[in-house]
Design a protein that fits this description.
By secondary structure, the chain is of the alpha/beta class. Helices cover 16% and strands 33% of the residues. β26 (392-399), α5 and β27 form a beta-alpha-beta unit. α4 (369-386) runs parallel beside α5.
Protein backbone atom coordinates (compact mmCIF):
# COMPACT_ATOMS: atom_id res chain seq x y z
CA UNK A 1 0.00 0.00 0.00
CA UNK A 2 1.10 3.60 -0.60
CA UNK A 3 2.24 5.25 2.63
CA UNK A 4 5.47 7.15 1.82
CA UNK A 5 5.82 10.76 2.89
CA UNK A 6 3.87 12.60 0.17
CA UNK A 7 5.98 15.79 -0.01
CA UNK A 8 9.66 14.77 -0.02
CA UNK A 9 11.07 18.28 -0.52
CA UNK A 10 9.01 19.82 2.27
CA UNK A 11 9.10 17.39 5.21
CA UNK A 12 7.97 17.94 8.75
CA UNK A 13 8.16 15.47 11.64
CA UNK A 14 4.41 15.65 12.27
CA UNK A 15 3.17 13.21 9.62
CA UNK A 16 -0.09 11.36 10.24
CA UNK A 17 -1.11 9.29 7.22
CA UNK A 18 -4.81 8.54 6.69
CA UNK A 19 -4.30 6.02 3.89
CA UNK A 20 -5.77 2.59 4.45
CA UNK A 21 -9.29 1.28 4.99
CA UNK A 22 -12.16 3.75 4.77
CA UNK A 23 -15.90 3.12 4.72
CA UNK A 24 -17.35 3.66 1.25
CA UNK A 25 -20.75 4.22 -0.35
CA UNK A 26 -22.02 5.13 -3.80
CA UNK A 27 -25.34 6.93 -4.20
CA UNK A 28 -27.52 8.58 -6.81
CA UNK A 29 -28.09 11.36 -4.27
CA UNK A 30 -25.71 14.04 -2.96
CA UNK A 31 -27.04 13.52 0.57
CA UNK A 32 -24.60 11.84 2.92
CA UNK A 33 -25.92 8.28 3.45
CA UNK A 34 -26.72 6.80 6.83
CA UNK A 35 -24.85 3.59 5.97
CA UNK A 36 -21.54 2.94 4.26
CA UNK A 37 -21.87 -0.68 3.11
CA UNK A 38 -18.42 -1.16 1.56
CA UNK A 39 -14.75 -0.70 2.42
CA UNK A 40 -12.15 0.92 0.17
CA UNK A 41 -8.38 1.08 0.42
CA UNK A 42 -7.36 4.73 0.07
CA UNK A 43 -5.59 6.13 -1.96
CA UNK A 44 -6.49 3.70 -4.75
CA UNK A 45 -9.47 4.86 -6.83
CA UNK A 46 -12.53 2.57 -6.80
CA UNK A 47 -11.83 1.45 -10.39
CA UNK A 48 -8.49 -0.06 -9.33
CA UNK A 49 -8.45 -3.70 -8.14
CA UNK A 50 -6.22 -2.72 -5.20
CA UNK A 51 -8.96 -0.44 -3.87
CA UNK A 52 -11.05 -3.46 -2.97
CA UNK A 53 -13.95 -2.07 -5.04
CA UNK A 54 -12.73 -2.76 -8.58
CA UNK A 55 -15.62 -1.33 -10.56
CA UNK A 56 -16.53 1.77 -12.53
CA UNK A 57 -18.37 4.62 -10.84
CA UNK A 58 -21.07 6.29 -12.93
CA UNK A 59 -20.67 9.89 -14.01
CA UNK A 60 -23.96 10.75 -12.27
CA UNK A 61 -23.15 8.82 -9.08
CA UNK A 62 -21.70 10.32 -5.92
CA UNK A 63 -18.97 8.65 -3.88
CA UNK A 64 -18.81 8.97 -0.11
CA UNK A 65 -15.75 8.10 2.01
CA UNK A 66 -15.77 7.98 5.81
CA UNK A 67 -13.24 7.25 8.51
CA UNK A 68 -12.68 8.15 12.14
CA UNK A 69 -9.40 9.27 13.66
CA UNK A 70 -7.77 10.71 16.74
CA UNK A 71 -4.68 12.87 16.49
CA UNK A 72 -1.32 11.54 17.69
CA UNK A 73 -0.17 12.83 21.07
CA UNK A 74 2.79 14.73 19.55
CA UNK A 75 0.45 17.00 17.54
CA UNK A 76 0.74 19.86 19.99
CA UNK A 77 1.68 22.81 17.77
CA UNK A 78 -0.49 25.74 16.81
CA UNK A 79 -2.43 24.63 13.72
CA UNK A 80 -3.57 21.31 12.25
CA UNK A 81 -3.63 20.91 8.44
CA UNK A 82 -5.49 18.27 6.44
CA UNK A 83 -3.95 17.53 3.03
CA UNK A 84 -5.29 15.75 -0.05
CA UNK A 85 -2.82 14.79 -2.79
CA UNK A 86 -5.59 14.71 -5.42
CA UNK A 87 -9.31 13.96 -5.71
CA UNK A 88 -10.89 13.52 -9.14
CA UNK A 89 -12.90 15.58 -10.06
CA UNK A 90 -15.09 17.54 -7.60
CA UNK A 91 -15.34 17.08 -3.85
CA UNK A 92 -16.60 18.50 -0.58
CA UNK A 93 -15.01 17.59 2.76
CA UNK A 94 -16.88 17.32 6.06
CA UNK A 95 -15.36 17.06 9.54
CA UNK A 96 -17.53 16.23 12.52
CA UNK A 97 -20.69 17.11 10.62
CA UNK A 98 -19.51 20.46 9.25
CA UNK A 99 -18.37 21.27 5.73
CA UNK A 100 -14.77 22.50 5.81
CA UNK A 101 -14.32 23.18 2.10
CA UNK A 102 -14.62 22.13 -1.52
CA UNK A 103 -12.22 21.52 -4.39
CA UNK A 104 -12.50 21.06 -8.16
CA UNK A 105 -9.98 19.59 -10.61
CA UNK A 106 -8.48 16.15 -10.31
CA UNK A 107 -4.67 16.48 -10.45
CA UNK A 108 -3.40 19.02 -7.89
CA UNK A 109 -3.18 18.94 -4.08
CA UNK A 110 -5.24 21.02 -1.67
CA UNK A 111 -5.26 21.72 2.06
CA UNK A 112 -7.72 22.69 4.82
CA UNK A 113 -6.94 24.13 8.25
CA UNK A 114 -9.05 21.94 10.53
CA UNK A 115 -7.81 23.20 13.91
CA UNK A 116 -11.08 24.74 15.05
CA UNK A 117 -13.24 21.73 14.04
CA UNK A 118 -11.25 19.03 15.85
CA UNK A 119 -12.55 16.84 18.67
CA UNK A 120 -10.97 14.00 20.62
CA UNK A 121 -12.63 11.53 18.20
CA UNK A 122 -13.18 12.82 14.68
CA UNK A 123 -15.36 11.74 11.77
CA UNK A 124 -14.04 12.68 8.34
CA UNK A 125 -16.32 12.36 5.29
CA UNK A 126 -15.33 13.08 1.69
CA UNK A 127 -18.06 13.49 -0.92
CA UNK A 128 -16.70 13.16 -4.47
CA UNK A 129 -18.14 13.14 -7.96
CA UNK A 130 -16.42 12.58 -11.29
CA UNK A 131 -18.61 13.63 -14.22
CA UNK A 132 -15.54 13.73 -16.50
CA UNK A 133 -16.32 17.35 -17.22
CA UNK A 134 -13.91 18.25 -20.02
CA UNK A 135 -13.71 21.84 -18.84
CA UNK A 136 -11.34 20.37 -16.24
CA UNK A 137 -8.13 18.46 -17.01
CA UNK A 138 -9.02 14.88 -17.99
CA UNK A 139 -5.92 13.47 -19.63
CA UNK A 140 -6.45 10.09 -21.28
CA UNK A 141 -9.48 9.02 -19.25
CA UNK A 142 -12.48 7.91 -21.26
CA UNK A 143 -15.71 6.13 -20.31
CA UNK A 144 -15.43 4.01 -23.47
CA UNK A 145 -11.80 3.08 -23.01
CA UNK A 146 -9.76 1.33 -25.69
CA UNK A 147 -6.74 1.97 -27.87
CA UNK A 148 -4.89 5.02 -26.52
CA UNK A 149 -7.74 5.88 -24.09
CA UNK A 150 -7.83 4.28 -20.66
CA UNK A 151 -10.17 3.43 -17.80
CA UNK A 152 -11.11 6.61 -15.91
CA UNK A 153 -10.21 6.93 -12.24
CA UNK A 154 -12.47 8.66 -9.74
CA UNK A 155 -12.47 10.08 -6.26
CA UNK A 156 -9.49 10.01 -3.90
CA UNK A 157 -6.38 8.80 -5.75
CA UNK A 158 -3.48 10.24 -3.78
CA UNK A 159 -2.44 10.26 -0.14
CA UNK A 160 -4.63 11.86 2.54
CA UNK A 161 -2.62 13.09 5.53
CA UNK A 162 -2.48 15.46 8.47
CA UNK A 163 0.34 17.50 10.00
CA UNK A 164 0.68 20.02 12.79
CA UNK A 165 2.44 23.36 12.34
CA UNK A 166 3.16 26.42 14.51
CA UNK A 167 0.87 29.41 14.24
CA UNK A 168 3.45 31.07 11.98
CA UNK A 169 4.72 28.56 9.45
CA UNK A 170 5.98 28.15 5.90
CA UNK A 171 3.27 27.41 3.33
CA UNK A 172 5.83 26.66 0.64
CA UNK A 173 9.26 27.53 -0.69
CA UNK A 174 10.72 28.03 -4.15
CA UNK A 175 14.24 26.96 -5.10
CA UNK A 176 15.80 28.21 -8.34
CA UNK A 177 19.15 26.54 -9.02
CA UNK A 178 22.21 27.79 -10.87
CA UNK A 179 25.63 26.14 -11.32
CA UNK A 180 27.08 27.43 -8.04
CA UNK A 181 24.17 28.86 -6.04
CA UNK A 182 20.46 28.77 -5.42
CA UNK A 183 17.83 31.45 -5.05
CA UNK A 184 15.61 30.56 -2.10
CA UNK A 185 12.17 32.16 -1.71
CA UNK A 186 10.05 31.59 1.40
CA UNK A 187 6.25 31.90 1.49
CA UNK A 188 4.94 32.10 5.08
CA UNK A 189 1.29 31.77 6.04
CA UNK A 190 1.50 35.26 7.58
CA UNK A 191 3.43 37.39 5.06
CA UNK A 192 3.42 40.41 7.37
CA UNK A 193 5.30 38.45 10.05
CA UNK A 194 9.08 38.27 9.62
CA UNK A 195 10.60 35.37 11.54
CA UNK A 196 14.32 34.70 11.67
CA UNK A 197 15.30 31.87 9.35
CA UNK A 198 18.15 29.42 9.79
CA UNK A 199 19.28 27.42 6.76
CA UNK A 200 21.56 24.38 6.85
CA UNK A 201 22.92 22.79 3.67
CA UNK A 202 24.65 19.42 3.90
CA UNK A 203 27.69 19.20 1.61
CA UNK A 204 30.48 16.63 1.18
CA UNK A 205 32.76 19.16 2.92
CA UNK A 206 30.46 19.49 5.90
CA UNK A 207 27.30 21.47 6.75
CA UNK A 208 26.92 25.12 5.80
CA UNK A 209 24.83 27.49 7.92
CA UNK A 210 23.11 30.79 7.16
CA UNK A 211 20.84 33.03 9.25
CA UNK A 212 18.65 35.68 7.59
CA UNK A 213 15.35 37.52 7.97
CA UNK A 214 14.56 38.19 4.29
CA UNK A 215 12.00 36.17 2.35
CA UNK A 216 14.32 35.93 -0.67
CA UNK A 217 18.00 35.06 -0.40
CA UNK A 218 20.80 33.89 -2.71
CA UNK A 219 22.85 31.06 -1.25
CA UNK A 220 26.31 30.34 -2.76
CA UNK A 221 27.48 26.72 -2.79
CA UNK A 222 31.27 26.25 -2.68
CA UNK A 223 32.84 23.38 -4.65
CA UNK A 224 29.55 22.74 -6.43
CA UNK A 225 28.58 19.25 -7.61
CA UNK A 226 26.26 19.44 -10.60
CA UNK A 227 23.24 17.17 -11.03
CA UNK A 228 23.14 14.94 -14.11
CA UNK A 229 21.52 11.55 -14.78
CA UNK A 230 25.02 10.07 -14.54
CA UNK A 231 25.70 11.78 -11.19
CA UNK A 232 22.40 12.79 -9.54
CA UNK A 233 23.85 14.64 -6.57
CA UNK A 234 21.31 16.13 -4.18
CA UNK A 235 22.03 18.67 -1.43
CA UNK A 236 19.98 18.05 1.71
CA UNK A 237 18.68 21.12 3.50
CA UNK A 238 16.95 22.04 6.74
CA UNK A 239 15.08 25.32 7.16
CA UNK A 240 14.09 26.61 10.59
CA UNK A 241 11.56 29.43 10.25
CA UNK A 242 10.80 30.57 13.77
CA UNK A 243 9.41 27.41 15.39
CA UNK A 244 8.71 25.72 12.07
CA UNK A 245 11.27 23.17 10.82
CA UNK A 246 11.19 21.85 7.25
CA UNK A 247 13.62 19.45 5.58
CA UNK A 248 14.16 18.89 1.88
CA UNK A 249 16.74 18.92 -0.88
CA UNK A 250 17.85 20.70 -4.04
CA UNK A 251 20.24 20.13 -6.93
CA UNK A 252 22.52 22.38 -8.92
CA UNK A 253 21.72 22.22 -12.63
CA UNK A 254 20.69 24.46 -15.49
CA UNK A 255 18.82 24.03 -18.78
CA UNK A 256 19.46 26.33 -21.70
CA UNK A 257 19.68 26.51 -25.49
CA UNK A 258 22.89 27.20 -27.39
CA UNK A 259 24.45 26.75 -30.79
CA UNK A 260 27.08 24.02 -31.07
CA UNK A 261 28.95 23.65 -34.38
CA UNK A 262 26.21 25.67 -36.03
CA UNK A 263 23.40 23.48 -34.67
CA UNK A 264 20.86 24.61 -32.01
CA UNK A 265 21.12 22.27 -29.01
CA UNK A 266 19.52 21.83 -25.60
CA UNK A 267 22.22 22.24 -22.98
CA UNK A 268 22.36 20.59 -19.58
CA UNK A 269 24.66 22.55 -17.27
CA UNK A 270 25.94 24.47 -20.29
CA UNK A 271 26.89 21.35 -22.27
CA UNK A 272 25.11 19.64 -25.18
CA UNK A 273 23.26 16.57 -24.02
CA UNK A 274 21.10 14.02 -25.83
CA UNK A 275 17.84 13.27 -24.03
CA UNK A 276 17.17 9.57 -24.68
CA UNK A 277 13.63 9.03 -23.47
CA UNK A 278 10.57 6.88 -23.04
CA UNK A 279 6.93 7.91 -23.00
CA UNK A 280 5.66 7.19 -19.48
CA UNK A 281 1.92 7.44 -18.89
CA UNK A 282 1.85 6.24 -15.29
CA UNK A 283 -0.69 3.41 -15.41
CA UNK A 284 -0.57 0.10 -13.54
CA UNK A 285 -2.64 -3.05 -13.90
CA UNK A 286 -3.56 -3.41 -10.21
CA UNK A 287 -3.40 0.20 -8.98
CA UNK A 288 -4.60 1.88 -12.22
CA UNK A 289 -3.12 5.35 -11.63
CA UNK A 290 -0.84 4.29 -8.74
CA UNK A 291 1.82 1.60 -8.26
CA UNK A 292 1.05 -1.24 -5.86
CA UNK A 293 3.51 -0.04 -3.23
CA UNK A 294 5.94 2.75 -2.35
CA UNK A 295 8.77 1.19 -4.37
CA UNK A 296 6.83 1.04 -7.64
CA UNK A 297 8.12 4.34 -8.99
CA UNK A 298 11.71 3.43 -8.17
CA UNK A 299 11.37 0.06 -9.93
CA UNK A 300 10.13 1.74 -13.11
CA UNK A 301 12.89 4.36 -13.05
CA UNK A 302 15.57 1.75 -12.42
CA UNK A 303 14.21 -0.38 -15.27
CA UNK A 304 14.37 2.55 -17.69
CA UNK A 305 17.92 3.35 -16.57
CA UNK A 306 18.94 -0.31 -16.97
CA UNK A 307 18.09 0.03 -20.68
CA UNK A 308 20.23 3.16 -21.03
CA UNK A 309 17.43 5.75 -21.01
CA UNK A 310 18.08 9.04 -19.22
CA UNK A 311 14.65 10.68 -19.65
CA UNK A 312 10.95 9.94 -19.19
CA UNK A 313 8.28 12.01 -20.85
CA UNK A 314 5.53 12.12 -18.23
CA UNK A 315 2.62 12.04 -20.64
CA UNK A 316 -0.65 13.83 -19.86
CA UNK A 317 -0.27 13.09 -16.13
CA UNK A 318 0.85 14.74 -12.94
CA UNK A 319 2.23 12.11 -10.62
CA UNK A 320 2.44 12.11 -6.82
CA UNK A 321 5.63 13.84 -5.69
CA UNK A 322 7.39 10.57 -4.68
CA UNK A 323 7.65 9.76 -8.40
CA UNK A 324 9.68 12.92 -9.00
CA UNK A 325 11.76 12.27 -5.88
CA UNK A 326 12.73 8.87 -7.32
CA UNK A 327 13.77 10.58 -10.57
CA UNK A 328 15.71 13.27 -8.64
CA UNK A 329 17.53 10.69 -6.51
CA UNK A 330 18.21 8.06 -9.17
CA UNK A 331 19.02 10.40 -12.03
CA UNK A 332 16.15 10.45 -14.51
CA UNK A 333 15.27 13.63 -16.41
CA UNK A 334 11.54 14.31 -16.80
CA UNK A 335 9.85 16.01 -19.74
CA UNK A 336 6.61 17.04 -18.04
CA UNK A 337 3.30 17.44 -19.91
CA UNK A 338 0.50 19.64 -18.70
CA UNK A 339 -2.81 17.77 -18.50
CA UNK A 340 -5.20 18.59 -21.33
CA UNK A 341 -8.71 19.86 -20.85
CA UNK A 342 -11.19 21.00 -23.49
CA UNK A 343 -12.44 19.05 -26.50
CA UNK A 344 -10.73 16.36 -28.58
CA UNK A 345 -11.76 15.55 -32.17
CA UNK A 346 -10.40 12.34 -33.70
CA UNK A 347 -10.53 13.56 -37.33
CA UNK A 348 -9.20 17.06 -36.61
CA UNK A 349 -6.61 16.24 -33.94
CA UNK A 350 -5.33 12.82 -35.06
CA UNK A 351 -6.29 11.61 -38.53
CA UNK A 352 -5.67 14.73 -40.63
CA UNK A 353 -2.36 15.70 -38.94
CA UNK A 354 -1.07 12.12 -39.29
CA UNK A 355 -1.45 12.32 -43.07
CA UNK A 356 0.08 15.78 -43.26
CA UNK A 357 -2.51 18.45 -42.45
CA UNK A 358 -0.53 20.01 -39.62
CA UNK A 359 -1.33 23.71 -40.01
CA UNK A 360 -4.13 25.24 -37.97
CA UNK A 361 -4.70 28.65 -36.38
CA UNK A 362 -5.30 27.85 -32.73
CA UNK A 363 -6.74 31.32 -32.04
CA UNK A 364 -9.90 30.08 -33.74
CA UNK A 365 -10.50 27.17 -31.37
CA UNK A 366 -13.97 27.41 -29.89
CA UNK A 367 -13.34 26.86 -26.22
CA UNK A 368 -15.44 28.49 -23.56
CA UNK A 369 -13.90 31.20 -21.39
CA UNK A 370 -14.44 28.88 -18.41
CA UNK A 371 -12.41 26.10 -20.05
CA UNK A 372 -9.59 28.50 -20.92
CA UNK A 373 -9.49 29.94 -17.41
CA UNK A 374 -9.36 26.49 -15.85
CA UNK A 375 -6.45 25.53 -18.12
CA UNK A 376 -4.51 28.69 -17.23
CA UNK A 377 -5.12 28.21 -13.51
CA UNK A 378 -4.13 24.54 -13.69
CA UNK A 379 -0.98 25.40 -15.64
CA UNK A 380 0.04 27.90 -12.97
CA UNK A 381 -0.84 25.45 -10.20
CA UNK A 382 1.22 22.70 -11.83
CA UNK A 383 4.28 24.94 -12.11
CA UNK A 384 3.93 25.94 -8.45
CA UNK A 385 3.49 22.30 -7.43
CA UNK A 386 6.47 20.88 -9.36
CA UNK A 387 8.84 23.85 -9.64
CA UNK A 388 11.39 22.57 -7.10
CA UNK A 389 11.89 19.14 -8.74
CA UNK A 390 15.41 19.10 -10.26
CA UNK A 391 14.53 16.24 -12.61
CA UNK A 392 12.00 18.31 -14.56
CA UNK A 393 13.84 19.86 -17.50
CA UNK A 394 11.06 20.54 -20.00
CA UNK A 395 7.40 21.53 -20.09
CA UNK A 396 4.95 20.45 -22.82
CA UNK A 397 1.93 22.77 -22.98
CA UNK A 398 -0.26 21.12 -25.65
CA UNK A 399 -0.06 17.61 -27.08
CA UNK A 400 -1.31 16.96 -30.63
CA UNK A 401 -3.79 19.81 -30.47
CA UNK A 402 -5.81 18.37 -27.56
CA UNK A 403 -7.60 21.35 -26.05
CA UNK A 404 -5.11 23.66 -27.76
CA UNK A 405 -5.82 27.39 -27.85
CA UNK A 406 -3.62 30.46 -28.16
CA UNK A 407 -0.44 28.48 -27.64
CA UNK A 408 1.69 31.60 -28.18
CA UNK A 409 -0.13 33.27 -25.29
CA UNK A 410 0.26 30.17 -23.14
CA UNK A 411 3.98 30.12 -23.95
CA UNK A 412 4.27 33.70 -22.67
CA UNK A 413 2.31 32.81 -19.53
CA UNK A 414 4.47 29.78 -18.80
CA UNK A 415 7.70 31.65 -19.42
CA UNK A 416 6.59 34.32 -16.94
CA UNK A 417 6.13 31.56 -14.35
CA UNK A 418 9.30 29.58 -15.08
CA UNK A 419 12.26 30.83 -17.10
CA UNK A 420 14.53 27.97 -16.04
CA UNK A 421 13.22 25.14 -18.23
CA UNK A 422 12.69 24.33 -21.90
CA UNK A 423 9.15 24.91 -23.23
CA UNK A 424 7.55 22.79 -25.96
CA UNK A 425 4.40 24.72 -26.81
CA UNK A 426 2.91 22.25 -29.31
CA UNK A 427 4.11 18.67 -29.23
CA UNK A 428 3.42 16.83 -32.47
CA UNK A 429 1.77 19.39 -34.76
CA UNK A 430 -0.36 22.54 -35.04
CA UNK A 431 2.76 24.63 -34.41
CA UNK A 432 2.35 28.37 -33.99
CA UNK A 433 5.11 31.00 -33.57
CA UNK A 434 6.39 30.66 -30.00
CA UNK A 435 8.23 27.61 -28.69
CA UNK A 436 11.76 26.80 -27.52
CA UNK A 437 11.91 23.68 -29.70
CA UNK A 438 10.59 22.17 -32.92
CA UNK A 439 8.64 19.11 -31.76
CA UNK A 440 7.43 16.24 -33.98
CA UNK A 441 5.52 12.97 -33.64
CA UNK A 442 6.52 10.47 -36.34
CA UNK A 443 5.27 6.89 -36.21
CA UNK A 444 4.99 6.02 -39.90
CA UNK A 445 7.85 7.84 -41.63
CA UNK A 446 11.50 8.75 -40.94
CA UNK A 447 12.70 11.99 -39.40
CA UNK A 448 13.83 14.49 -42.05
CA UNK A 449 13.07 17.86 -40.40
CA UNK A 450 16.64 19.17 -40.04
CA UNK A 451 18.13 22.63 -40.37
CA UNK A 452 15.66 24.60 -38.26
CA UNK A 453 16.49 27.56 -36.05
CA UNK A 454 15.37 25.77 -32.86
CA UNK A 455 16.48 22.53 -31.22
CA UNK A 456 14.85 19.52 -32.87
CA UNK A 457 12.88 17.11 -30.65
CA UNK A 458 11.22 13.88 -31.72
CA UNK A 459 8.70 13.87 -28.92
CA UNK A 460 7.01 10.59 -29.94
CA UNK A 461 8.00 7.70 -32.22
CA UNK A 462 8.11 3.91 -32.29
CA UNK A 463 5.16 2.23 -30.59
CA UNK A 464 6.19 -1.28 -31.74
CA UNK A 465 4.19 -4.20 -30.37
CA UNK A 466 4.73 -7.87 -29.70
CA UNK A 467 2.17 -9.44 -27.42
CA UNK A 468 -0.38 -12.21 -27.62
CA UNK A 469 -2.68 -10.74 -24.99
CA UNK A 470 -6.05 -10.40 -26.74
CA UNK A 471 -7.05 -7.21 -28.52
CA UNK A 472 -4.05 -4.99 -29.17
CA UNK A 473 -3.35 -1.39 -30.04
CA UNK A 474 0.03 -0.27 -31.35
CA UNK A 475 1.73 1.25 -34.37
CA UNK A 476 3.57 -1.74 -35.85
CA UNK A 477 3.21 -5.43 -34.96
CA UNK A 478 5.72 -8.29 -34.92
CA UNK A 479 4.98 -12.00 -34.62
CA UNK A 480 8.15 -13.05 -32.81
CA UNK A 481 10.04 -11.51 -29.93
CA UNK A 482 13.31 -11.54 -31.85
CA UNK A 483 11.77 -9.72 -34.81
CA UNK A 484 10.35 -7.15 -32.39
CA UNK A 485 13.68 -6.63 -30.62
CA UNK A 486 15.63 -6.36 -33.86
CA UNK A 487 13.14 -3.87 -35.30
CA UNK A 488 13.60 -1.50 -32.35
CA UNK A 489 17.40 -1.65 -32.70
CA UNK A 490 17.12 -1.09 -36.45
CA UNK A 491 14.79 1.88 -35.95
CA UNK A 492 17.35 3.62 -33.77
CA UNK A 493 20.35 2.70 -35.91
CA UNK A 494 18.78 3.74 -39.21
CA UNK A 495 16.84 6.81 -38.11
CA UNK A 496 17.67 8.15 -34.64
CA UNK A 497 21.46 7.74 -34.29
CA UNK A 498 22.28 9.42 -37.66
CA UNK A 499 19.87 12.24 -36.77
CA UNK A 500 21.80 13.20 -33.62
CA UNK A 501 24.73 14.57 -35.63
CA UNK A 502 22.30 16.49 -37.85
CA UNK A 503 20.64 18.25 -34.92
CA UNK A 504 18.26 15.90 -33.08
CA UNK A 505 18.39 16.81 -29.37
CA UNK A 506 15.85 14.43 -27.83
CA UNK A 507 13.85 11.36 -28.82
CA UNK A 508 10.93 9.80 -26.94
CA UNK A 509 10.13 6.16 -27.74
CA UNK A 510 6.55 4.99 -27.18
CA UNK A 511 6.52 3.59 -24.52
CA UNK A 512 7.63 2.36 -21.08
CA UNK A 513 4.81 -0.08 -20.31
CA UNK A 514 1.75 -1.68 -21.85
CA UNK A 515 -1.54 -0.09 -20.79
CA UNK A 516 -4.78 -2.02 -21.18
CA UNK A 517 -5.24 -2.58 -24.96
CA UNK A 518 -2.16 -0.52 -25.83
CA UNK A 519 0.43 -3.30 -26.01
CA UNK A 520 3.47 -1.34 -27.17
CA UNK A 521 5.47 -1.05 -23.95
CA UNK A 522 8.99 -2.26 -23.29
CA UNK A 523 7.58 -3.93 -20.19
CA UNK A 524 4.21 -5.59 -19.65
CA UNK A 525 1.31 -3.87 -17.89
CA UNK A 526 1.82 -5.96 -14.74
CA UNK A 527 5.61 -5.34 -14.94
CA UNK A 528 6.32 -9.10 -15.03
CA UNK A 529 7.75 -9.31 -18.58
CA UNK A 530 10.69 -7.28 -19.80
CA UNK A 531 10.36 -7.46 -23.57
CA UNK A 532 13.70 -6.11 -24.81
CA UNK A 533 17.30 -7.21 -24.32
CA UNK A 534 18.82 -4.84 -21.77
CA UNK A 535 22.43 -5.32 -22.94
CA UNK A 536 21.57 -4.48 -26.56
CA UNK A 537 19.59 -1.43 -25.45
CA UNK A 538 22.49 -0.15 -23.32
CA UNK A 539 24.90 -0.47 -26.26
CA UNK A 540 22.42 1.47 -28.35
CA UNK A 541 22.23 4.22 -25.73
CA UNK A 542 26.02 4.66 -25.80
CA UNK A 543 25.82 5.57 -29.49
CA UNK A 544 23.36 8.37 -28.72
CA UNK A 545 25.53 10.29 -26.31
CA UNK A 546 26.69 13.68 -27.56
CA UNK A 547 29.16 14.39 -24.79
CA UNK A 548 29.52 11.90 -21.91
CA UNK A 549 29.41 13.20 -18.36
CA UNK A 550 31.96 11.75 -15.96
Amino acid sequence: MISAYPRPQFRRDSYFCLNGTWEFAVSASDTIPAKFPESICVPYPPEAPLSGIGRRIGQDETMFYRRTFSLPENFSKGRILLHFGAVDQKCEVFLNGRSIGTHEGGYLPFTFDITDQLLMENVLIVQAKDPLDHAYPWGKQRVKNGGMWYTPFSGIWQTVWIESVPRSYLRSLRITPALDRIRLELFPNEPSVRAETELTVETPDGPLHWTFSESVVTVPIPNPILWTPENPHLYRITIRYGEDVVAGYFALRTLSIGTVDGIPRILLNGKPYFFHGLLDQGYWQDGLCLPPDDDGYERDVRYAKSLGFNMLRKHIRIEPLPFYEACDRLGMIVFQDFVNNGPYRYLRDTVLPTIGFVKANDLRRRLTDRTKTIFKNTLAGTVHHLYNCPCIAYWTIFNEGWGQFNSDGMYALLQSLDETRIIDSTSGWFWQSESDVDSYHLYFKPLTQFGGKRPLVLSEFGGYSHSGNGKQYGYKFFETKEAYRSAIISLYESNIIPAVKKGLCAAVYTQLSDIEEEQNGLISYDRSEQKVDAARMRLLAQKLRIEPYE
